[in-house]
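Page 42, continued from yesterday. The earlier attempt failed because a stray header line got pasted into the input along with the sequence. Redoing it now with the clean sequence only.
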Amino acid sequence: MTKTYTIKGLTCEACEYAVKFMLEKVPGVLAATADRTSGTVTLDAETPLAIESLQQALAANAKYSISEQAAAAVNAVAEEKTWLQTYKPVVLVFAYILAVCALVEVKAGEFSVMRSMGNFMAGFFLVFSFFKMLNIRGFASSFRMYDPIAAVSGTYALAYPFIELGLGIAFLFIPGSVWLNVLTALIMGIGLAGVMKSVLNKTKIKCACLGDVFDLPMSTLTIVENSAMIFMSGFMMVKGV
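This time it went through. Structure tokens are written below.
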């Protein structure tokens, strides 16, 4: 059976994902879809659900309140975005990092694969950790929906931006370190497994790569992003041996 409830406290896409995540843990709930525009959440359930059990599932965050009042009508239809409009933030971030790395090589007067890769990895982790730190809890909420480790450890989800910060600093000073590249490949590989599972299952969740600042849906772009980082860390690991 399918039923729509009114819910208060939805202010952003991260809220939608958080409510979906919490309500789908309620026994009997097959799927949940939250919509901040209409202030509603629609549940597919095996049996009728007690409103008390749903509110209890949301108790971890006091800002959310669910009720059986008639749902508000949705009057506005979201405009379909193009691929570039959707992923413009991450494209610009990558372009910016690549441009800075290119300028470093121009200043050096000669091109070095190891140096350019090390600088790119450093720039990637430093910039991406910055965006995550703008709203660490918002990032963690989205990250836990697809990363295998974060799904079972909220501490890891909250610590992840600082892990990226540490990796960024390390790549500035010891890009050729075998252990650094092994650790990077391991972390990115675990994340890639979660991303691929979500994309292949066509699960509609938010990509947390740029934290909670931008609404970026999970897609094959995220797979390419993680795969590229694994490739570069693997390349530098082999060269550093």
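Notes: The beta strands are 2-8, 29-35, 40-45, 65-67.
Reminder to self: strip header lines before submitting.
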